[in-house]
Amino acid sequence: MADKAAADWKKTACVLCGSNCGVLVQLGGRDGREIVRVRGDKAHPGTKGYTCNKALQLNYYQSAKGRLTSPLRRRDDGSFEEIDWATAISEIAEKFIAIRDELGGDKIVYYGGGGQGNHLGGGYSPPLRRALGSRYRGNALAQEKTGLSWVFDRMVGGFYHGDFEHCETALLVGKNPWHSNGFPRARVVLRQLAKDPNRKLIVIDPRVTETAELADIHLRVQPGRDAWLLAAILGQLVQADLIDHAWLAAHAQGHEEVIDALSTIPVAQYAAFAGIEMPQIEEVADILGRTNSLSVLEDLGIEMAPNSTVNSYHCILLFLLTGNFAKAGAVNLPAQLVTIFTPDRISESRDERGHETGYKTTPVTQSRIISGLIPCNLLPDEIITDHPDRFRAMLIESANPVHSLADAKRMREALATLDLVVVIDVAMTETAKAADYVLPASSQYEKPEMTFFNFEFPENCAQLRAPLMPPLPGTLSEPEIHARLLEAIDPFNASELEPLRAAAQDGLEAYAMAYGAAAKANPKINHYGAYILYRTLGPSLATGMSEGAALLGVAQMFAATETASLARAGFEGTPMQAGNKLFEALLAAQSGLVFSIDAPEDSFRRNRLAGGTVNLHLPEMLDKVRELDDYAAAETTAEFPLVLAAGERRSYTANTVVRDPAWAKSNNALTLAVNPTDAASLGINDGGTARLTTVRDSVEVVVELDKRMLPGTISLPNGFGLSYPDAQGNEVVTGISPNELTAVEDRDDFAYTPWHKFVLARLETP
Ligand SMILES: Nc1nc2c(c(=O)[nH]1)N[C@H]1C(S)=C(S)[C@@H](COP(=O)(O)OP(=O)(O)OC[C@H]3O[C@@H](n4cnc5c(=O)[nH]c(N)nc54)[C@H](O)[C@@H]3O)O[C@H]1N2
Ligand SMILES: Nc1nc2c(c(=O)[nH]1)N[C@H]1C(S)=C(S)[C@@H](COP(=O)(O)OP(=O)(O)OC[C@H]3O[C@@H](n4cnc5c(=O)[nH]c(N)nc54)[C@H](O)[C@@H]3O)O[C@H]1N2
Ligand code: SF4
Ligand SMILES: [Mo]
């Protein structure tokens, strides 16, 4: 009996945030396709049995009403009709080919490719994009982390992450891991940090978040003034001589210029401008300067706020000036199976100020492309224009840009302007409603899935999840959709693929030999690598696991570049052998596995900058630091006296992955949080309604009084305002869609990331 019960539990992961906690689930309900019980998987090497409150609600994703079960085509009157897959594939292929041949494949943009739990499908899109000659792509990272990636690429040569489990001091800047995670087992790790008298948790946030409540020091910054606060802390570090000169001399370049600039910062004035008292600045600088290990994590509180790129620069300076890079418990460069951030090719040319020139730009507005991504806030400007190079078509996969990007109205207008919009999704989303064709995907529990949001150090892990159930009839996995589209655009003949399929039956070594020979004879093989693996190696894998095939290429690449880290994790032999072993282990390890064990020095080795030296001097950023002297902060106005954070993470938010509003079990799921003092002066009561107005829209909201809010600031949850069928099957919208209220113009001047945490607003009694 006990064995039977154990066998009933299937291993998978939660897909509601990027932590992807390993879970065990039991299925039941209608057709045995519902997730009826969930518990943490103790055997998962990263999350070790941990979950937050949200994992229990996974069935709201899996068994959502309104799943798409047929391809849809828009009729002339705007309504949709169901069509069969063969028709959908051939019509879409034909339309993409026409755009490619008449206007150029570079007019076709690929957007998305994965949310919080599904990165495998998007990994199969490159062959299709190549066949179409599509050169531009975008995703949600270009509305949050492109400023960060521009600076980390040029300062530490790759994506960095702290070790919050082991650090002595944790600094969280505009980040609330209690709700949003960002490292494994967040609530446990935060409580440990709070409890241990020898460790320090420092939080920079205007709101008294659940994380801030646990902090040793909470710097309650004025919204949008982090640049002055962080500059004040940096100035204090330099002026009180708390920086690690020996470490900098051994490992860094460009620090003299930076130290020079920071030595004249008027620390007390900047602190006061940011709303912080000097003793707190002195205390924080003292802790950062003396701690044995510092880990830093920034997120949307600064990335979606004024000066976001310079704030990301400041955060890196904090750990570099104190020598907290490539060190146990501090910041390191984790091994990554697949890099989420495509590194920029850093141009060699500079203008007279030392600013980089010759970087890649967008076709219409000539704006900086960072990490290979079109800036999200500029997408509409690249479409709604008569410029000859404007974008003409979009393929959108596993993303809901009409809801998630700034200024939903302008995004809808942009999609309506395009000649062709194809959306691949599980639900009839706000974006799908704006498409010409909608292709129904199998859910993340109906196909093999994986994410690459694993950034732990010194041990990093990965989990390939097997499907829990067969695909919902009518749906296909993204790898299959991409394969069918490619076959309609640039097909291989059977004789080209047959030898590879046959070799796959004889094992991975035979397959590798056959692949090598085939690629030599026909360059198209490598060009379309993920497709080839899917169609030829895929069928030889366990039933239902074909979509795992491209991981062979991933494992081989990883083994070739990270041989030592992989060997320490137990995958030894030649790179080819170790790569094959890793691939086989990924397919077998249901709870996931450790694929890399590092030493701190690996961070220097992984640093892509010449010589593995870190670089502190970025003229573009240092000029912005100097401009802080003008105190030109974004300000409220008489018309808009409040600062709205449009899209906060709460107990029941998961971007737009869960559409059923019934999943939100807490009282404050949908409300606008307002400080009681502000509410009193406006005559608004707890639970009452109010009219919220921004430059873009005016909506009615339910207000919740919340003394955690800094007076003058208000906040709305992220991920609501979605349409969902009610008991009668009528579509109902619940809550506020934050981006009906935001404007594309409110953005960083460098990386163009939106100021969603700094939306000027007014609140009135209705
Ligand atoms: N529950 C849940 N978890 C999630 C998600 C989700 O939707 N729901 N989404 C995931 C995704 S995609 C992401 S990117 C992360 C985001 O994770 P976070 O960045 O932690 O999420 P937010 O709550 O949007 O913003 C963080 C904090 O910024 C603060 N803030 C607002 N204005 C300012 C300011 O001017 N300065 C500073 N310093 N702070 C400010 C807010 O008070 C808030 O506490 O969460 C991930 N995890
Ligand atoms: N105002 C404001 N706007 C924000 C934010 C904010 O804080 N404030 N946060 C921003 C952030 S940080 C992010 S990351 C973005 C996220 O925004 P998006 O990148 O647009 O992603 P999600 O909302 O996660 O939407 C994922 C989509 O994938 C679909 N989906 C789920 N499973 C599958 C599947 O297996 N296959 C396919 N093909 N589709 C699937 C879902 O139905 C949904 O439509 O939102 C951003 N928007
Ligand atoms: S939502 Fe909670 S349970 Fe799910 S992955 Fe994130 S932290 Fe883990
Ligand atoms: Mo995000």
In short:
The chain is of the alpha/beta class and 766 residues long. Helices cover 34% and strands 16% of the residues.
Summarize the main sheet.
Answer: 7 strands, mixed
Bound molecules: ligand MGD, iron/sulfur cluster, molybdenum atom
Q: In the CATH hierarchy, what is the architecture of the largest domain at level 2?
A: 3-Layer(aba) Sandwich
- The CATH homologous superfamily name of the largest domain equals Dimethylsulfoxide Reductase, domain 2
Strand order of the largest sheet: 5-4-17-16-15-6-7
Gap between N and C termini, in Å?
61 Å
Helical element count?
29
Q: What would you say this structure looks like, in words?
A:
This protein is of the alpha/beta class and 766 residues long. It folds into 5 domains: 2-62, ADC-like domains (N-terminal domain of TfIIb); 72-111 and 130-144 and 358-440, Rossmann fold (3-Layer(aba) Sandwich); 146-339 and 612-628, 3-Layer(aba) Sandwich (Dimethylsulfoxide Reductase, domain 2), CATH 3.40.228.10; 459-604, no CATH class; 635-764, Beta Barrel (Barwin-like endoglucanases). The protein is built from 29 helices and 28 strands. It has a 7-stranded mixed beta sheet with strand order 5-4-17-16-15-6-7, with helices on one face. It is globular. The termini are far apart. The model has no long low-confidence stretch (mean pLDDT 97). The site of molybdenum atom has 2 residues, from loops.
